[in-house]
Amino acid sequence: MDREVNEIVSELLGSYQEVGGINRIDCSNLPSKPAIGSVCEDLLRLAFPGFLDTEAIASEELEKETALRVSKVITALDKEVARSLRFGAGEEDVNGNRAHEMVCSFLRQLPGIRRLLRTDVEAAYDGDPAARSFDEIILAYPCLEAIAIQRMARILYKEGVPLIPRMMTEWAHAKTGIDIHPGAKIGSHFFIDHGTGVVVGETCEIGHHVKLYHGVTLGARSFPKDEEGNPIKGIKRHPNVEDWVTIYPGATILGGETTIGARSTIGASAFIMKSIEPDSLVALPEVTHDIKDKSAHRRNSGEKKGS
């Protein structure tokens, strides 16, 4: 057994020397994926107190429980944001006070995020006839979890915190099947019905009262490249969606110069790479179906067997 282990270790060490770009050795620690996942869970508990706990929270205990949870998030995020900032600074020393200030600034914005999330719950309740209560939406609708994490991650994204905002939204993506980049700008009353397979790109700008269905992609066209053939970063690549737009399942909308005008409806499976005027209905042509009588087919088959 020892010989086999030594052989495997030797081969792996050789691989570490040979294959670059996916090793991180003799460097400072990166943010921890498990720690960020735990922070996301605690942030959701702060956003929706009493909904995600195993035990009910009494009103007289709310201040104490909230203080404990905020302290826990600060302790965890201070460490992870400091690691992230060290990465962004190219391994240079980072003042721990800077990370702490960014974390506290982030947490002070949670009340405003909660006000936005209330509008998202309302949009889900109004937009889905199957929804029976706000409680059901908060407990059972994956879109709300994905939207909540994205709205929080966007605060850190705008502050220039490396890695962590994307780790947060990818945590939500893994749980919900909904991929919203932390850079996307999203207005109030946002609802994603069903949700699975939705992709919203980094430079998307989505207005108020927008409703998406499953399988919608708000993506980029081909990527422009610099003189050396490398993709150009930091440019507008994803579409704008104005207020009161509904986009049905499987629709794909691409390009940074593409705008879907207000109050428009985009039908299922549409493929759009140019702007749509306000108050438009985009739908694919009706497909002709070949409908056959299965009972006649069975009768004919029976007659052939009997002959």
Write the topology of this structure.
Elements: H1 2-18, H2 33-47, H3 62-88, H4 96-108, H5 110-127, H6 134-140, H7 142-158, H8 164-176, E1 179-180, E2 185-186, E3 191-193, E4 199-200, E5 205-206, E6 211-213, E7 217-219, E8 240-241, E9 246-247, E10 252-254, E11 259-260, E12 265-266, E13 271-272, E14 281-282, H9 294-306
Parallel strand pairs: 1-4, 2-5, 3-6, 4-7, 5-8, 6-9, 7-10, 8-11, 9-12, 10-13, 12-14
Helix pairs in contact: 2-3, 2-7, 2-8, 3-4, 5-7, 7-8
Describe the 3D structure.
This protein has 307 residues and is α/β, with parallel strands linked by helices. The chain has two domains: 150 residues, Orthogonal Bundle (serine acetyltransferase, domain 1), CATH 1.10.3130; 90 residues, Hexapeptide repeat proteins (UDP N-Acetylglucosamine Acyltransferase, domain 1), CATH 2.160.10.10. The protein is built from nine helices and 14 strands. It is globular, with a radius of gyration of 25 Å. The model has no long low-confidence stretch (mean pLDDT 91).
